[in-house]
Write a structure and sequence with these properties.
This protein is mainly α and 433 residues long. It has helices at residues 2-43, 46-71, 76-100, 105-127, 130-133, 139-164, 170-189, 210-222, 225-255, 260-283, 290-307, 310-313, 318-350, 356-384, 387-405, 408-414, 417-420. The protein is globular. Its main location: membrane.
Length: 433
């Protein structure tokens, strides 16, 4: 009887989680679009825009490990709600400032800085809580719902933002963001973050120093070689995929001379691909061999980066270029989710609850830390080297990293059942692997 009640509560969590994440992510994307357009409209400076981007990345890189440590020490629900509440107060402060004075660039930078801090703490605490909110059989569905909300907001945010920008004041952008986070706060306040906890009591001791706790997280990683390999692969993955995020617009605009009106459709194709695969994961049974599944997707992702060079080597008509990159970016979005979702489910299940916050904090730090470095490196390289050389190098690097870091022997050691039937290794990607 108790288990039935818990399952019902987990179902409530699953859909409340989907709705709250979708509402807050949509509000955040609308806000991000409005702020970006506002900065460009009043300054006309790419540097001012880049500075705001820096203020949204640096605090996340620096504070992610600290957020992870705190998520393992204090009740995660408290941390999530305090982070959400801090976000509401931060944006409300900018709204109040705009009503009393004109919005300034400095005020936007300060808001972005504190906004990022609050979202970092609430985001990592929530990520570390997913396995406590739903039963193990539905962790994959929860992770796919998380990706679904990101995809929908990624598609809808710019559309809603574009419709609003020019018709309503900046204050309305701020109000929409505040309202979305208030709704998310109220929904998340109703959730039981200890429903499927394995700990008798939430750890609250602060006797151990932050540095000791951080070191203990790395020591724990040494006892989980598979998780450690996943983190290393994630590190290199984010570095080499920066070649796509930095280079795609440069290639389309400067090299292939694609019309600006069509670039938005090409970029949207990636978000649609992510949405499509998120729905697929939400509907299908749990992936039986997640590391093998993700390895295949990552291998195909490496090949796809190389495939992007074909229109740079051979002549394509303008319409063929548009259709080709629509398909490529749709596939890119699909493969990104196919790679990430099984890995994240695996981490939710395999990482001990008492270390989950620190591990997700380290993952966030490693993933975000290389983004500005990758953007800087490839931003320089695209100015001095042919784009096809850069993409082919990154493609080969991704394939080699996949094969070396996740060898067949490692997969066989994790999934001994595969030894009994090696023919399963030849199954297509979308089989129940």
């Amino acid at each position: 009887m108790v288990e039935i009640v818990k399952k019902r509560r987990a179902t409530y969590h699953l859909y409340t989680f989907l709705f709250s994440k979708m509402i807050s992510a949509l509000g955040a994307n609308v806000y991000s679009f409005g702020i970006s357009m506002y900065i460009l409209s009043i300054t006309g400076s790419a540097l001012s825009f880049a500075a705001n981007l820096i203020f949204s990345i640096i605090p996340r890189v620096i504070l992610s490990p600290i957020a992870g440590i705190l998520a393992d020490r204090i009740p995660k629900k408290v941390m999530v709600l305090v982070g959400q509440g801090g976000t509401v107060l931060t944006i409300s402060g900018l709204l109040l400032y705009s009503l009393l004075f004109d919005i300034s660039i400095v005020a936007i930078y300060i808001t972005t800085f504190f906004y990022t801090i609050c979202s970092t703490f609430s985001g990592i605490a929530f990520s570390a809580s997913i396995a406590n909110l739903v039963d193990e059989e539905r962790i994959q569905k929860a992770m796919s719902f998380n990706q679904l909300s990101i995809s929908v907001s990624g598609i809808g945010g710019p559309i809603v933002g574009g419709m609003l920008f020019g018709f309503v004041s900046m204050e309305w952008f701020l109000f929409i963001n505040i309202l979305s986070y208030i709704i998310a706060f109220l929904l998340e306040a109703t959730m039981n973050f200890k429903l499927y906890t394995n700990q008798l009591e939430e750890p609250t001791s602060i006797e151990e120093s932050m540095l000791q706790s951080f070191k203990e997280g790395f020591t724990y990683l040494k006892t989980k070689p598979v998780i450690l390999r996943i983190l290393i692969v994630s590190l290199w993955l984010n570095l080499f995929l920066s070649s796509v995020s930095v280079g795609i617009n440069f290639i389309l605009v400067e090299i292939l001379k694609v019309e600006y009106s069509l670039i938005g459709f090409i970029e949207a194709a990636a978000a649609i691909g992510m949405l499509f695969i998120s729905l697929y994961f939400a509907a299908r049974t749990n992936v039986k061999y997640p590391l093998q599944f993700s390895k295949r997707a990552l291998f195909m992702l490496g090949i796809l980066v190389g495939v992007m060079t074909i229109p740079l080597i051979f002549h394509f008509s303008s319409s063929a270029i548009f259709i080709y990159f629509l398909a490529v970016m749709f596939s890119f979005g699909c493969l990104t989710v196919l790679t990430n979702t099984p890995i994240m489910v695996m981490m939710q299940k395999d990482v001990d609850e008492s270390y989950r916050g620190r591990i997700f904090g380290i993952l966030e730090m490693m993933a975000m830390g290389l983004m500005p470095i990758g953007s800087l490196i490839f931003g320089i390289l695209y100015d001095v080297l042919p784009a096809q050389i850069i993409l082919l190098f990154c493609s080969a690097s991704l394939i080699i990293i996949t094969l070396v870091a996740i060898p067949r022997s490692l997969i066989m050691s994790i999934y001994p059942n595969l030894k009994k039937n090696t023919s399963e290794l030849e199954q297509p990607l979308f089989k129940n692997t």
